[in-house]
Specification:
Helix content is about 25%, strand content about 30%. It has about 250 residues and is an alpha+beta fold. The protein is built from 6 helices and 10 strands, in the order H-H-H-E-E-E-E-H-E-E-H-E-H-E-E-E. A 6-stranded antiparallel beta sheet has the order 4-5-6-9-8-7. Helix 1 (about 15-30) crosses helix 3 (about 50-65). A hairpin with a 5-residue loop joins strand 8 and strand 9.
Length: about 250
């Protein structure tokens, strides 16, 4: 039975709202991860000492909020949390996450010098031909959710190859060491079929929805100074826009 103090019958908060909070706390207390199965309706009734109707209402709303997922015939499972990403920000990928996120880890999969890469050259308007290609896996406590490819022109960022490691923010490095200000960003967003190599690192299959974002950042004179693309597990992220309204 749940502690009777956990459900306050005199509280102005509706009972099913209290149970929603209780289920989320139960998931956290029991260190449940994405994909873990939670107790069924009958068992939750016993845990929280409330009616099946109340449990069903709480489960329904938690499902709508993306906290859990009900799979007919199999049960109810913890769902991976989503990362909030602002579409208009000029920051790096992990810097652009909501401020509440503090458990992000980055792992370099590889870094190398490449020349005459067609895609990177187009992004830099064919003004640059030699780049540091930095590929990183981005993950949190629930697992991987993105692979980030960054292309850094060698003549714009001399010596940057030796400065890059798992703990370094490329945007902080560009801002603090190279003193290059960012003034404009262009992004393209689309759904794609993930390449096999990405599936392996992200722990997904070829049918999983993956969002590809390509981003070019410009400095004050209008020249491109940064190009990146990142593949994100569709069910792990959500985008939002916040901007001032003008006529």
């Amino acid at each position: 039975m749940m502690d009777q103090n956990s459900v306050d019958t005199d509280s102005p908060v509706l009972l099913y709202e209290q149970i929603k909070s209780g289920i989320k706390a139960w998931i956290k207390t029991n260190n449940m991860k994405a994909g873990d199965k939670i107790p069924n309706e009958s068992e939750l009734c016993g845990i929280f000492d409330v009616s099946r109707i109340t449990i069903r209402r709480a489960i329904k709303e938690l499902g709508e909020e993306g906290v859990i997922e009900v799979i007919r015939g199999k049960g109810t499972f913890v769902r991976a949390s989503k990362k909030d990403l602002h579409l208009l920000n000029l920051k790096g990928f992990t810097e652009g996450l909501s401020t509440e996120e503090n458990n992000i880890e980055k792992e370099i999969l590889h870094k190398r010098i490449i020349t005459d890469d067609a895609e990177a050259s187009r992004a830099f308007e064919h003004e640059q031909t030699e780049f540091v290609e930095l590929v990183r896996l981005v993950k949190d406590a629930e697992g991987p959710f993105s692979i980030d490819f960054a292309y850094l022109p060698v003549n714009i960022y001399p010596g940057i190859y030796d400065l890059l490691d798992d703990s370094v923010s490329t945007f902080a490095l560009i801002r603090e060491k190279y003193k290059i200000p960012f003034t404009k960003v262009k992004k393209e967003i689309e759904y794609v079929h993930p390449p096999a190599e990405l599936c392996k690192h992200l722990g997904i299959n070829k049918t999983s929805p993956v969002i590809l974002v390509k981003k070019i950042i410009y400095c004050p004179d209008g020249s491109p100074v940064h190009y990146s693309k990142y593949y994100m597990v569709g069910e792990r992220v959500k985008f939002y826009i916040e901007a001032d309204y003008t006529e």
